[in-house]
Amino acid sequence: RSQPWRGGRQGSPSARPSGSLRGCLVREEDSLLAKPVLRPVDREYLRDSGIQADYTHWLDHGKRSFETELWNGQYYQMARNTAAGTQNTGILLAGTVGQWFADLCDLGDILPRDHVLLHNEAAFRYCRQKTRADMPYVNPDDGIAYINGFWPHGRTPSGEGQWSGPWTGIEYMFASALAWLNRADLSVQVTTDVYNRYVNRRAPWNHIECGDHYFRPLGVWTVLLGLQGFRWDAGRRSLGFAPRISPENHRSVFCTNAGWGEYFATTVGTVRRHRVLHRAGKLTLSEFTIGRSTNDGKMLPRAVRVTCADRRVPVQTVHTADRLIFAFLQPLRLAPNSALDISWHTQG
User: Fold this and answer.
1) Which of 166, 181, 292, 344 has its CA 20 to 30 A from that of 144?
2) Distance, C-alpha 198 to centroid of its chain
3) Which of 297, 304, 310, 311 is nearest to 348 (CA)?
4) Taking the C-alpha atoms of 186, 156, 161 and 138 in order, what is their torsion angle to the nearest 10 degrees?
5) How confident is the model over 192-221, as a mean pLDDT?
6) What is the pairing mode between strands 238-241 and 283-291?
7) How does pLDDT run across 271-295, given as a tens digit for each residue?
8) DSSP readout, 227-283?
C-alpha cells in the first residue's frame, strides 16, 4: 500500500495498451481503474501523479476504443480490428460488466448510458434461450437460460463451447445490471427464470457453472442491491436507496460493513416516508440519500421531519441532479432496533 504498483506487464497501465479489447473496461477489475478518475475524493489515496496519469490514460483510451471499435448501433459487439478489416459481431451477456461494477460502487458512467441500456436490452432478446439437449450446463427440460454469447448476424462458432451455455453467476450479474439501468421488469424476469430453472431440475441450491455448487451465483445478492438502489459509503458514513421495485410500498433488507437492518419507503396521500430500522451491529450516519430514479426525484419535499429513536434531528436538505441528500449536522449513531425516520409532504 505504501508503494504504488506501477505494473510493467502487458495490459498494465504503464504498458500503454492498444487495440479495442485491451482497454475496453468490460471486466470487473478494469472498472477499479476508473475509481481514482471518476471520484476525485479518492485521488488522495494514490498520492502519485505518475500512476494517476497512467490510470487516466488507460481509462480514456478504453472508453474511446470501446465506443469507436465495438459499438455497432445496436450493441457492443465482441471485437473489431479496423486495421485488418475483421470483426466479430457476437454479443456477450456480460459485455458491459465493467459498467455494472461501476454502478455497484457508485463510480458514475464509464460508457454512454443509452448505449449500455440498448446493449443489455439486446442481450435479453438474443441470449434468452429455451434449454436444449446441445446446451452445456443444463438439461433439455430445465426451462429458460441466458447464454453467454450469441451471434445475431450469423457466423456462430462451430461446436459446443462456453458461449453456448449459461453461467448462473453471469445471469444474476445481468439481472443486477438491468436493475441499475432502471429495467426492474427485465431484472425480475431474469432472476425468476434462473431460479425456476433450478427448481425444475430439483436442485435449487446447486448452481452449476464449471462445476457443482459454484461460488459465483452468490452474486444474486447484487440483484437486491440494484432493485433497492443501495448506496453505502463507509468513509463518508452515507447510506442511500433508490427503490426500483414497489417504490410506493417498499421493504427490503440491507447490510453494511458493520451492521444490518431493514429499509422501508411508503407513500400515503402527499406524505412520503422513509425508515431505516437498524437491527444489529453498528451504524453511524452523516447523511441519508434518496435517488431521483424514484418518484422522490419528481417531487419537491416540504415540511421535512427527521427523527432518530423518536427524537427530532436537525438536517440540511440538498438537491442534486440524481438524488436528494439529507445531511445531518451531527453524526447519528443508531443503536440496535432503533430507527431513523424521514418524512415530508410533496408538491409538484
Assistant:
1) 181
2) 24
3) 297
4) 40
5) 93
6) parallel
7) 999 999 999 999 999 999 998 755 5
8) HHT-EEETTTTEEEE---SSTTEEEEEEE-SSEEEEEEEEEETTEEEEEEEEEEE-E
